Amino acid sequence: MSSIDFEKFSRYSRPGPRYTSYPTALEFSSDFSYNEYIKFLESEKGPLSIYVHLPFCRSACYFCGCNVVFTSKEEKLSRYIEYLKREIDILVEHIDIFREVIQFHFGGGTPTFYKAFELDEIVTYIKSKFPNWSSDAEISCEIDPRFFNEEQMKVLQKHGFNRISFGVQDLDEKVQKAIHRIQPLELTKRAVELARGYGIKSINTDFIYGLPYQTLESFKKTLQLSTELNPDRVAVFNYAHVPWLKRTMRKFDETTLPTPEVKLQIFKYTIDFFEDRGYKMIGMDHFAKPEDELFGAIEKGELHRNFQGYTTKGGANLIGIGLTSIGEGERYYAQNTKDMRAYEKAIDSGKLPFERGVVLDDDDFLRKAVIMELMANFHVDIKRVEREHNINFKDYFSNELKGLKEFIDDGLITITDSEIKVSPTGTLLIRNIAMAFDAYMKKYYNSKKSFSKTL
Ligand code: SF4
Question: Ligand 1 centroid vs 162 CA: distance in angstroms?
C-alpha cells in the first residue's frame, strides 16, 4: 500500500456500524413478533448455519464487547446446558431438522470454560436433533488459550471441528495488564500446537488494535511475535470503545487509548506486514494464507459477511441458540433475550427465548446487498444489483452517490457505470464508505452514543 496522509484521513473518525448485519442491531425491536419469527422458521428451506452461545467467563477482559456472564459456579454452567437442550427441543418443533448443516460455531463467552464432557454433551445433543451434517461443514470454536486442555481438544476432534479461533489481542505486557488479560505468548503457542497436533487445519488468531498503551512500535512487536504462531487466518479488529454500553470499558483511562491517527498507522502497518508475508486481506479486518478458502472466495467475489465474520458459506439461514444469540434469514434478523431469567422463563413456558429483531423490507434487502458486498469484496457490481433488485442504480441511489463525492475526491473509491471500486487506501475506511448506503444513519448523526468510532 502506498504512503498515506494519516492526519488527513483521521478526520473520517466518526461513529459508525461494523455491519455484521444490515439493518444494524439498533433497529431490532419487538415489532417483529414471536409468531412472525416462527412462521419464518417453519417456511425456510435450504442449508443451515448453527451458532451456539456459551456465555460464561471467569473474569472480565476490559475491552470485551461480547455478551458475557461472569461466574465460577459449576451449577450455573450445567443448568445452562439443560436450558440449551430444552431450547433446541422447542426449536426442532418449528424447523425442518433434515436441512443440511453446513456451518456450526461455538461462540461466547469462553466456550472452553466448559469441561470436555460438557462440550461433548452439547454437541452430541445438537447432532442428535439435527442429523444431516454436510461432509465439508465448517465446524468452529472460539478458544481462550487460558482455558483449554487436551481433553477438550479430543472432544472437538471427535465431533469434526476443523477451525479454531484463538483470542490473543496483544502480546505486550503493559497492554495485557491494562486490558486485564494476562496471556503469555508461550501459553498461546502451546494451545495452538495442541490444536495443530489434533489435525486442526485452520487456526485463526484474533488481535485488537486501539487498546490502551498500544503504539505503532508496540504493535509492530506484537505482530512480529505473532508469526511464531503461524496462523492460517488472522483477524485484527478495531477496538470498539463503547463505555456507555459496557461498564468494564470505563476502567480504561481514555487518555491512554491511541489516537485515530495512530490507529490508522497501526492498521496500515498491519496490512503491509501480512501482505509482505503472503497473506491476503479479507474484508475489513481479516488476513488469510493463499491456501485458505477465504482467499479463493475473494478472488471469485464470493465472500460473505455475517455475525461470525467472513465466510464462504453464504446463503444458509443462521439459527442462533442460547442467550443473546442472533439468527439471520434472508429477510429477517432475530435475537434471543440477553437476560438469563427471561431466557429461562421463555423456555419454561415452552417458547423460544426470542426477544426482538427486524424484518427486511425491499429497501433494506437492497441496501443490505450493497453494504455487504462493499464490506466483503470492496466493490459493488452495479449491473448485478440492478438485475437482482430490478432498479436503476444511479436513480435509486442518486443521493447516496452524491454523498460519496468526498471519497472520490480523496481517491478512496472510483465509480463507473458498472461498478463501485474501493481503492487500497479506501479499504481502511470501508465502514465510512458503506455508511453512505445506510438509510438509518441519519437518525444517529448527532448521537455520540450509538456506534463505536470507525477509526
Ligand atoms: S474477551 Fe473472551 S474471555 Fe475475555 S471477557 Fe470477553 S468473552 Fe470472556
Answer: 22
Tell me whether the CATH fold assigned to 1-21+362-446 matches the one assigned to 24-321.
Answer: no
- 195-223, pLDDT tens digit by residue? 999 999 999 999 999 999 999 999 999 99
Q: Is the pTM of this model over 0.90?
A: yes
The domains of the chain are located at: 1-21+362-446, 24-321
Instruction: Reduce the DSSP state of residue 9 to 3 states and report it.
Output: helix
Strands 133-143 and 163-169, bridge-based pairing: parallel
Ligand 1 centroid to Cα of residue 107, in Å, is 10
pLDDT digits (tens, 9 = 90+) for 36-74: 999 999 999 999 999 999 999 999 999 998 889 998 888
Q: Hey, what CATH class is 1-21+362-446 in?
A: mainly alpha
pLDDT higher than 90, residue 235:
yes
How many CB atoms are closer than 10 A to CB 248? Answer: 18
First to last CA, the chain: 18
Distance in angstroms (rounded) separating the CA atoms of residues 155 and 114: 12
CB 304 within 8 A of CB 314: yes
Residue 309: CB within 6 Å of ligand 1?
Answer: no
Ligand 1 proximity of 109 Cβ (cutoff 6 Å)? yes
Q: CB of 119 closer than 6 A to ligand 1? A: no
**Domain 24-321 sits in which CATH superfamily?**
tm_1862 like domain (3.80.30.20)
Backbone angles phi, psi at 203, to 5 degrees: -105, 125
Q: Is the CB of 107 under 6 A from ligand 1?
A: no
pLDDT tens for 144-185 read: 999 999 999 999 999 999 999 999 999 999 999 999 999 999
Taking only Cα atoms into account, the Rg of the chain, rounded to an integer number of angstroms, comes to: 21
Q: How far is Cα 426 from Cα 281, in angstroms, rounded to an integer?
A: 13
Residues 236-246 have pLDDT tens digits of: 999 989 999 89
